[in-house]
Amino acid sequence: MSDSLLLEQARMLCQDKGVRFTTVREQVFSLLADSNGSMGAYDLLTQLQKTDAKAKPPTIYRALDFLLEHGFVHKVESQNAYVLCNHFAEHHKAQLLICDSCGDVQEMNSSAISKALLTAAKQRDFKIVEPTIEAHGLCKKCQQN
Ligand SMILES: [Zn+2]
Ligand SMILES: [Zn+2]
């Protein structure tokens, strides 16, 4: 899907939910849509400051909180970075395959894995707050190099 189509879809989703897709939120969304891999908050801030010189770290973190809350992005804890979700309309639980060589992040959306994790945690009386699973390794491209 092209970036402008993604943005249009995100705008419509926000309208449906009755939440505001502010300029900053749109800009951060677009930066992540343009990026090939994940981006850290400071990379995002540097990019944002090119169009909005007044942007400060809280500007970015507030926008990211919004995007996370509504399922537009996934946080990659082990990289301390963010990726745009490929199918954000579903607001799903993700499994991330992270390449340690090039930093590429592929997301999976397996309900079987999510369910298995939930069941196993429940048996241990554990309440999961953040269900994202991150697996590290080498992507297809990097295995060939
Ligand atoms: Zn996703
Ligand atoms: Zn790679």
UniProtKB/TrEMBL annotation:
Keywords: Cytoplasm, DNA-binding, Iron, Metal-binding, Repressor, Transcription, Transcription regulation, Zinc. It comes from the Bacteria. Transmembrane segments: none annotated. It is found in: Cytoplasm. InterPro entries: FUR (IPR002481), Fur_C (IPR043135), WH-like_DNA-bd_sf (IPR036388), WH_DNA-bd_sf (IPR036390). Its main location: cytoplasm. Pfam families: FUR. Belongs to the Fur family. This is Ferric uptake regulation protein.
